Amino acid sequence: MAEVVTNGGVSVNELPFAQDRTRAWRELREAGEVVVSGQEVILTSAAAVELAAKAPETFSSARAFDRLGSPVPMIPIAIDPPDHTRFRRILDPFFGPKRMAEREAELRRQASELIDAIVAKGECDVVSDLATPFPTQVFLTLFGLPLTDRDRLVRWKDAILEFTDPGSVEPTPEVLTHAAELFAYLTEHISNRRSDTSGSDMLTALMTDTDAGAMTDIELLGLCFMFVLAGLDTVTSAVGFALAKLATDTQLQTRVREDFSLIPAFIEDLLRVDGPVPFAPRVTTRDVVVADQLIPKDTTVMMSYGSADRDPRRFQNPDDIDLDSRNVHFAFGRGPHRCLGSHLARLELRIILEEWHSRVGDYAVAPGGSPQVKWPAGTLTLNALPLKVKPA
Ligand code: HEM
């Protein structure tokens, strides 16, 4: 008989992610495959995470998102199959590689503008000068919204994400104000599109141009909200980790600069070693046994995609980036909720790394700068990445 999982003596919020991610992941994994942290159960191995991510009838994402009490459904993450399947059928074609490639030229132009400004200064904070503005502009561009709204969108998003971070309990009045402003902003634009459907943006297309049935206004609002929360900080994080790795590993920097065809493999294994999303929540709908441990019904389970991605039983030399590995990582998740924006994210990262290495020569972390991630947090993101850069 499986034993009910008991406290593994680990407190995830106290793991040393800020200082040393490799040590933090090792400490978590050593606590066990299924381990209790506070009120939650953490799945740490690749096998356990895979099992839970692919069993949505037992590990419910919808139940996990009830806690946020969002006034609109967070589509599609807060919906379980079978309803979830309808949304993915509508959405997947819009976020596929072909549709994304149609935007490449415009996104490349915007990335090069941001990078040219950095080269002109000779130094930058990658996080605030490039990794934050770029994905925000991408969202505005895809949805046909004015780029001049970029900075207020960043402010709204930051305030709301702070509330969704682990440990926060009640939204502050400031968070509620920012959430209301973001809803009002998105609602107004959705309603404008309803009255004028001549645009070629994604919002208009989602209203009108789908084989699987168009989305309602409230569903579109939920999707836009979800995009802002899931598709901005994740890319910010990955851009930061990518340039931090290359800035400190001059050999790899030279290889990438001399051969852009290595960039996709670098992106994939970077996402494995330093994935932006450390944990994804589910709630159990019944008692379930994982790795000989009984997890009772109604337990909040955190699937650790980050820990799975460093699991030595799945990956050789799990803490190192290997451009030849072809590792199939967990950074975009598994199962029905696998990242909707993975093709977009890959495109954004490839554009940034190509434009960066076309315009920037040698670069290194500025003296005194020792980039750290904020922890605890929902996304692992560098606080700042000060670089000294030379023109190419
Ligand atoms: C490097 C960047 C990104 C990473 C690492 C990432 C990671 C993830 C992960 C791990 C999940 C699964 C969560 C779960 O199992 O609960 C997910 C889901 C999702 N992501 Fe991403 N993401 C990234 C970029 C984006 C972008 C650019 C978008 C914009 C559209 C996006 C939209 C979504 C959505 C809508 C879902 C929910 C899918 C569903 O429930 O069916 N993501 N992402």
UniProtKB/TrEMBL annotation:
Tree of life domain: Bacteria
Keyword terms: Heme, Iron, Metal-binding, Monooxygenase, Oxidoreductase
GO molecular function: heme binding; iron ion binding; monooxygenase activity; oxidoreductase activity, acting on paired donors, with incorporation or reduction of molecular oxygen
Pfam families cross-referenced by the UniProt entry: p450 (PF00067)
Similarity field: Belongs to the cytochrome P450 family.
Name of the featured protein: Cytochrome
UniProt keyword Metal-binding present: yes
